[in-house]
Structures are given as structure tokens and as C-alpha cells.
Amino acid sequence: MRKISISTTTHLCNNPRLVKELSSLFALSEYKIEVNYFIFDNKKTQYDKEIINGLRNIKFNPIIWYRKNPIRLFWGLISKILNIIHQRLNISLWQEQQIFPGYFELYPTLKNSDANIYHGHNLVALAAVVQVSRQKGKVAIFDAEDFHRGETHSSNLINKLIIAIENKYI
Which letter, b or e, does each residue of 66-102 get, where b requires 16 or more Cβ atoms within 10 Å of its Cβ? Predict the structure, then answer.
């Protein structure tokens, strides 16, 4: 049985495309699926529970990411410092952390997975997914719909980070 680990950086209910994919995979008995997702809004967790209840054979790994969570505050501060360094010195360090402060919460969750396939469901999950899959000698996949290069012609920091992440991991 193939094991698939799917990672997203938001609530399940914020991601109807993911829920549609999970519903399709749920119907196929040859896959064992786990989903790593972030929760940051109490109101949305109720909608997530409804989705989870409809997909009982899938393992869901919520990553707590509430605004007042000390871990989120710490990694958010690190990201802000990296952004300031970029603005002052025009140096982009640790793009994975800059583009998503939850990177170091997702990465260890994936390291504990024993999947055959690691699926990054959005751009900010891509770095952790690819790094873990390479370390384990497994396959990494990414939704091409989330290929964000060229969405804007801006030279702002987020656009630079998008290009850096895509260049490094795709």
C-alpha cells in the first residue's frame, strides 16, 4: 500500500481543491493518506472537523498556529528580522523561513512521516516537502497550479521569495 503525505499551510476548509483531492484518494483503497495542515482560527476548526468526519480513513495531523502561540510569535519574529535584513542589505537569507514562518513547524512533522510520496499542496509547503523527500529518498510532488512565478511583475520581497523558492525546489 502506497503512503501519501499531503501538506498545506492553512485550514482544510480554506482549501476546497485539497478536499476534492482527498475525497478522490479516499475512494481508492490502495493508498494510505496523511494530511498535515495548520489551524489558526477557532471558528474554522469546526468546518475542518466536518471534513475530517467525512474522511475517516485519512490521518489528519493538525499543526497549532494560533496568533498568540509562543512558537508562532518566535518564528514570526525570526521572519521579520530576515525581512528587515533583506530591506536594509538587499540580502535574502533563509527564504524558506521568510516566505512562511511555519516552515519549522511543518518540517519536523514531515520528518516523522514514513510516506512514499510527499505532496506539497501550496508554495510555502514546498520547501519542507522537497527537503524531507530528498533526505528519505522518496518522491516529492507539487501542484502546478501553485506555480506563482510571473503572477506579478513586481520586484518586491514576496515576489523575489517566490522566485527563489521555485528556483531552488522545482
Answer: eeeeeebeebeebbeebbeebeeeeebeebbbbbbbb
Q: How far apart are the first and last CA of the chain?
A: 27
Q: Give the C-alpha separation, 133 to 168, whole Å.
A: 14
- Whole-number Å distance between alpha carbons of 52 and 54: 5
Bridge partner residues of 82 (DSSP): none
Quote the pTM value. Answer: 0.87
- Give tens-digit pLDDT for 36-90: 999 999 999 999 999 999 998 899 999 998 778 788 788 888 888 888 887 788 7
Give the CA distances from residue 91 to residues 71, 104, 148, in Å, rounded to whole numbers and listed in that order. Answer: 25, 21, 21
